[in-house]
Amino acid sequence: MSTNPAPSSEPISCVVTGGARGIGRGIAERMVARGYQVVLTDVDGEGARRTADEIGAAEGLAHDVRDPGSHAEAAATAGRHGVLTAWFNNAGVGDDGTLAELSEEAVRRLVDVNLMGTMWGMRAAIAAFEASGRDGDIVNTASLAGLGPVPGYSVYAATKAAIVSISMSGDVETRKGIRVRALCPDGVRTAMLDQQTPGGMGSALVHSGGRILTVDEVAEEAVGLLGSRRVVRSVPGWRGGVVRVSAMAPSVAARGLGLFVAQGRRAISRNA
Q1: What are phi and psi of 165, to 5 degrees?
Q2: Phi, psi values for residue 134, rounded to 5°
Q3: Which of 156, 164, 188, 232 is catalytic?
Q4: Per the similarity annotation, which family is this (predicted)?
Q5: Average pLDDT of the residues in 74-83
Q6: DSSP string, 206-241
């Protein structure tokens, strides 16, 4: 299936959350290039508006994904620019640390933004697709961390695992023509990664897998899921296989943890 809108006088729109920078901006740029009227949202409303102006998006909107009603507002805004046919739940936070180390505030933020924000977005998108009677795609930015044990990212990984699960279930629950997909990238060179605890276990594990992905690589894969039959996509694919194997035998994987952490810390030192 083509990922471009069908030739028509009727404009087609999409929503990209967390679009002011990073992966979200990369997705929005590609959707603008494909002819979509893009509503780009971010908790940083000024940043969203500035990015929308820079890339030619239809509108930049202040949007806190923790608020269920704000998703309906984003859907309505997109509907004013064209028929909503795609929604990217990309907004997220990446607090690292073990479950015991993280503050109560950090735990709630991870769950409310990453998981609840994605589910509220899915509900708004499904409601809009049903109301219009049109086909539509929902692409959720999950993480490779959601496919297996990632000590040092335990709560973050739990939210991403839940996103993978709700994506698979949601794809089955919705009518034919509404597709729900989950993208699971390895570490990506973004501000979120740069803000991780220096020398932390989570950061070391991210860097243990080799080259850090670029925003452009991940944004291209996200847009590539439009119309795809693939429900869950890992980037890179081989790394997804490794993490899934570790999930099947977590006690065995734990014995090699020290080696991976040491490898990651060496990689960080080389790139410092």
Answers
A1: -65, -50
A2: -100, 160
A3: 156
A4: Belongs to the short-chain dehydrogenases/reductases (SDR) family.
A5: 98
A6: HHTTSSPBPHHHHHHHHHHTTT-S-SEEEESHHHHH
Query: What's the angle, vertex CA 20, arms to CA 45 and CA 87, rounded to 5?
Result: 95
156 given a catalytic annotation: yes
Q: Which residue has the higher pLDDT, 249 or 163?
A: 163
Matching residue, tokens 């073990």: 98
Using CB atoms within 10 Å of the CB of residue 250, give its burial: 0 to 12 exposed, 13 to 18 middle, 19+ buried.
exposed
CATH 3.20.20.70 given to domain 12-195+211-247 = no
Q: What is the pLDDT of residues 169-189, one digit of tens each?
A: 999 999 999 999 999 998 766
Among 248, 259, 44, 15, residue whose Cα is nearest residue 137: 15
Amino acid sitting at position 71? H
pLDDT reported for residue 201: 56
Q: How far apart are CA 36 and CA 265, in angstroms?
A: 42
Q: Where are the domains of the chain?
A: 12-195+211-247
